[in-house]
Amino acid sequence: MFVEEVLKSLAELYSEGSRKVSAENGNLIESELKLYPASSDSVSLLTERYSPLPEDYLKFLSITNGCRLFEDVVYGGENDIFSAEEVLETNSHYNHPSRIIVAYINGDHIFIDLEDVKAGRTEYMYVYEGGVDFDDASSLYCDFQTWLDRFVMAQGNKYWTWRVEDRKF
């Protein structure tokens, strides 16, 4: 699992505080990283409600209980990977039997399909662009740590909207 290395590299990038990142249309923004302290109690509550959760996602939560990535220091942002508590709260409004929202990225909901996880599939991450419609979502063709790694490499930009012929990354 490389989720730990992704988070370590992020922490190192932001070790001296904020930093500039390239955003859409050639804009540079001063950004910051907010990592929240891990909480085994919160993760326990989450695993009681949703099972099975993927190992890479659980590893992420064991390191940080959610985070805000590439947040504009002036205007804020909407790059939230939810804490365990936020996952429980957010999903209490939707009550889908197998899909749970784990992040909100600039208007898009990112979620894990627990049926895919249970079946042993490694491509269990999905996105619904612009709202929440679990049945009309698009596969991100990856696991959580790969999604996180790509999102970090894209510096907080929604790489999944960069249209490619087969959309399989």
UniProtKB/TrEMBL annotation:
SMART domains per UniProt: SMI1_KNR4
Pfam families named among the record's database cross-references: SMI1_KNR4 (PF09346)
Gene3D superfamilies (UniProt xref): SMI1/KNR4-like (3.40.1580.10)
SUPFAM superfamilies linked to this entry: SMI1/KNR4-like
Domain of life: Bacteria
Domain Knr4/Smi1-like as annotated: residue spans: 37-150
InterPro entries associated with the record: Knr4/Smi1-like_dom, Knr4/Smi1-like_sf
Name this protein carries in UniProt: SMI1/KNR4 family protein
Source organism (scientific name): Paenibacillus agilis
Source lineage: Bacteria, Bacillati, Bacillota, Bacilli, Bacillales
